[in-house]
Amino acid sequence: DGEVWTFSVRPFNWPLPAHTIQVNYDGFAEDIEVGDELLVDGGMVRFEVIEKFGPDVKCCCIDPGLLLPRANLTFRRQGRLVREKNAMLPTISSKDWLDIDFGISEGVDFIAISFVKSAEVIQHLKSYLAARSRDR
């Protein structure tokens, strides 16, 4: 509650920077305005837009909750629905990256990913696993 998060359409190396949510539609920063309310999955988590800079949007969490992959995004402006979008979060969430690190430390034999949207997701995971195995 009250934490500032950055929503961005920019591609990032994995894992994402802290308090960053990758949005997967290009018009996101253009569609939203400072002061808009951003609802995730119909209000399971709520943010207020406090700043826009390029492809990034800074938001203050006003009602915390669980952020899940493939969530639905709704913008509200002055109490009215402005836009609704599907699939805003990445396939591999920040919680998933923590679980992957834990699995690596425990020596798991394989890692499965559900709802993969692109080959890039698999490539990022493979690169991450290769780098982590070199570090061990």
Automatic annotation (TrEMBL):
<dbReference type="InterPro" id="IPR001697">
    <property type="entry name" value="Pyr_Knase"/>
</dbReference>
<dbReference type="InterPro" id="IPR011037">
    <property type="entry name" value="Pyrv_Knase-like_insert_dom_sf"/>
</dbReference>
<keyword id="KW-0479">Metal-binding</keyword>
<keyword id="KW-0418">Kinase</keyword>
<dbReference type="InterPro" id="IPR040442">
    <property type="entry name" value="Pyrv_kinase-like_dom_sf"/>
</dbReference>
<dbReference type="GO" id="GO:0005524">
    <property type="term" value="F:ATP binding"/>
</dbReference>
<dbReference type="InterPro" id="IPR015813">
    <property type="entry name" value="Pyrv/PenolPyrv_kinase-like_dom"/>
</dbReference>
<dbReference type="GO" id="GO:0004743">
    <property type="term" value="F:pyruvate kinase activity"/>
</dbReference>
<dbReference type="GO" id="GO:0030955">
    <property type="term" value="F:potassium ion binding"/>
</dbReference>
<dbReference type="Pfam" id="PF00224">
    <property type="entry name" value="PK"/>
</dbReference>
<keyword id="KW-0670">Pyruvate</keyword>
<dbReference type="InterPro" id="IPR015806">
    <property type="entry name" value="Pyrv_Knase_insert_dom_sf"/>
</dbReference>
<keyword id="KW-0547">Nucleotide-binding</keyword>
<feature type="domain" description="Pyruvate kinase barrel">
    <location>
        <begin position="19"/>
        <end position="130"/>
    </location>
</feature>
<keyword id="KW-0324">Glycolysis</keyword>
<dbReference type="InterPro" id="IPR015793">
    <property type="entry name" value="Pyrv_Knase_brl"/>
</dbReference>
<protein>
    <recommendedName>
        <fullName>pyruvate kinase</fullName>
        <ecNumber>2.7.1.40</ecNumber>
    </recommendedName>
</protein>
<dbReference type="GO" id="GO:0016301">
    <property type="term" value="F:kinase activity"/>
</dbReference>
<comment type="similarity">
    <text>Belongs to the pyruvate kinase family.</text>
</comment>
<keyword id="KW-0808">Transferase</keyword>
<keyword id="KW-0067">ATP-binding</keyword>
<keyword id="KW-0460">Magnesium</keyword>
<comment type="pathway">
    <text>Carbohydrate degradation; glycolysis; pyruvate from D-glyceraldehyde 3-phosphate: step 5/5.</text>
</comment>
<dbReference type="GO" id="GO:0000287">
    <property type="term" value="F:magnesium ion binding"/>
</dbReference>
